[in-house]
Amino acid sequence: MSERDVDDRLEVWCAGEDWCPITSTATILGRKWHPVIIHRLLSEGPQGFNALKDAVDGVSSKVLSDSLDDLEEHGLVAREIVSEKPFRVEYSLTERGRSLESVIVAMRDWGQEHLAAPPGS
């Protein structure tokens, strides 16, 4: 691992503990909409806020906005102002965000194999 890679790592309170990478990753991805947002950006590419809201069916504007802010703070999503008039923002995954692809795909695959809708739904 290069010095640059170490400098780009996220700081976590439990660094050094053998369980820390698991819990820290789960903390970032454990919020309800985070994996879905990342999945949509992986599969559909950069999107404006409204397109992303439509792609993440069921999320409120406030929750999507808060989630995007959190993902941006963790260096997973980039926010770019595309135009001033009318004001338009586009969200895309950073290199760190794209590196989660295998994790997101594994979560989807596991869910498809092991989860079922409740009876009567």
UniProtKB/TrEMBL annotation:
Q: Name one GO molecular function term.
A: DNA binding
InterPro entries reported for this sequence? HTH_HxlR, WH-like_DNA-bd_sf, WH_DNA-bd_sf
The yes or no answer to whether the keyword Transcription regulation is present is yes
Keywords in alphabetical order: DNA-binding, Transcription, Transcription regulation
Please report the stretch or stretches of sequence annotated as the HTH hxlR-type domain: 20-119
Q: Does the keyword Lipid metabolism apply?
A: no
Stored SUPFAM superfamilies: Winged helix' DNA-binding domain
Name the PROSITE patterns for this protein: HTH_HXLR
Which PANTHER family would you find in this protein's record? TRANSCRIPTIONAL REGULATOR, MARR FAMILY (PTHR33204), TRANSCRIPTIONAL REGULATORY PROTEIN (PTHR33204:SF18)
Task: State the name under which the record lists this protein.
Answer: Transcriptional regulator
State the species of origin.
Haloglomus irregulare
